[in-house]
Specification:
With 405 residues, this protein is mostly beta strands. It is 7% helix and 65% strand. The protein contains 2 helices and 21 strands.
């Protein structure tokens, strides 16, 4: 009993300074907007959108901080999302994320282990129930970041592990044997197709260097991601039987991005620009059984993007922002098709233009009136769009209120 009392007293004395230094700083924001979405001049009904963020930042001591974060959003306006390798028209989306980051500071160095979990729900049709969407997915991630601040600039290195699970995206071959004319075809497909082909695990390494040649702030970054689809067999070229044979390998994607950004403050104007070059290399091919066409490197592409932006921030809290994004995607193995589905000799290329304008004006206390308008143009040499959208014009306007704390 005496030992327990002594141990309790020691722990209390050790925790006392920590409790005395502990400080909690809550940060929160919430916005509620309503608006319309137009796709190729066809207007959807007026729908709402909401975003929420909450973080009770906890300072445990001079060198220790804890950052728990909740973020969530709901979008009732339909839009085109890039899912499963193509543009899918979705009607409603919502996501919720919980994360925890610990920050340890030593002199001019910081060490930041982190963990997070998120769930995303997607509805493609109005009569689809939440939780039944084909593209619903859960993401668990854990990682570590190190930062070194030096007189000439700041270095940052990080590693993250991601596990993504599509609970409703599963093959139905076990219930489809009657569709096939022969048992051999069914056995080959059912053995190799996999039950959960979209589930994947990723490892990401990232490096960045920020420096400040007055009056400009510069940053260069590079990241590399290896993504493995453990239940998706690689498709090879067709064999003599006309069937798409599967190799013994599983799909693996390698993603690389190189980004250079710059920003400058000219009060009350803030200017920024970023340029990025990306490359996705995948060992997965595709076989079109209808037209008996095999394509290697079906998911591989190179893309480049430019993102200039300007923000006007006034002392009363008013803000006006204008942003422009240009992105060009060059597929390395996915062939373009005509409106009838016939294949051309060249690969698909796709160009995106996104223009965004937003403004907010203080109403009272921490409440703001907010408005936003986005216009996106997607243009491609791909004309066959029975599966995915490649060519479209889309615009969204939103108006509502925002609260910050």
């Amino acid at each position: 009993m005496r030992k327990q009392v002594i141990l309790t007293a020691v722990l209390a004395l050790a925790a006392a300074p920590l409790a005395a230094e502990m400080k909690i700083t809550p940060v929160a924001s919430f916005n509620l907007l309503g608006g319309k979405y137009f796709l190729d001049s066809d207007a959807a009904s007026f729908e709402g959108r909401a975003d929420a963020y909450f973080s009770p930042a906890i300072r445990l001591g001079e060198r220790h901080e804890l950052l728990p974060v909740y973020s969530g959003n709901y979008s009732g306006t339909q839009d085109v999302q890039e899912l499963a390798g193509g543009g899918v028209l979705t009607r409603q989306r919502q996501s919720h994320s919980l994360s925890l980051k610990y920050i340890y500071t030593r002199d001019f160095d910081k060490y930041k282990p982190r963990v997070s979990y998120s769930r995303a729900l997607v509805r493609e049709t109005k009569d689809e129930s939440w939780g039944d969407g084909l593209f619903d997915y859960d993401t668990f991630s854990a990682g570590f970041e190190a930062e070194q601040e030096r007189p000439h600039g700041t270095f940052t290195e990080s590693y993250d592990f991601f596990s993504v699970t599509y609970g409703n995206y599963a093959t139905l071959l076990s219930d489809s044997q009657s569709v096939f004319n022969d048992t051999t075809t069914f056995n080959q497909l059912s053995t190799n197709a996999g039950e959960n082909p979209m589930d994947n695990i990723s490892h990401r390494l990232a490096f960045s260097y920020a420096w400040f040649p007055e009056p400009v702030a510069m940053k260069a970054s590079y990241d590399f991601t290896w993504r493995n689809y453990g239940d998706q067999a690689v498709i090879n070229n067709q064999n003599s039987t006309g069937l798409p044979p599967f190799s013994g390998d599983k799909r693996s994607d390698f993603v690389q991005n190189l980004t250079l950004s710059a920003s400058r403050g000219l009060r009350p104007v803030y200017l920024s620009a970023a340029a990025r070059v990306g490359w996705l290399s995948s060992n997965q091919g595709s076989y079109d059984n209808t037209r008996q066409k095999y394509m290697d490197d079906y998911y591989s592409y190179i893309d480049v993007s430019l993102n200039p932006a300007m923000t006007l921030a006034l002392r009363n809290g008013s803000q006006f922002r204008f942003g422009l994004e240009w992105r060009k995607v060059f597929y390395l193995g996915r062939l373009a098709q005509g409106t009838d589905g016939s294949y051309a000799s060249e690969e698909i290329d796709q160009t995106y233009w996104l223009t965004s304008v937003s403004a907010r004006y203080p109403l009272f206390n921490r409440f703001y009136a907010r408005g936003a308008f986005n216009y996106q143009l997607s243009d491609s040499n791909m004309r066959y769009e029975d599966n995915y959208r490649y060519n479209y014009r889309a615009s969204t306007y939103l108006v509502g209120v925002e609260w910050e704390f």
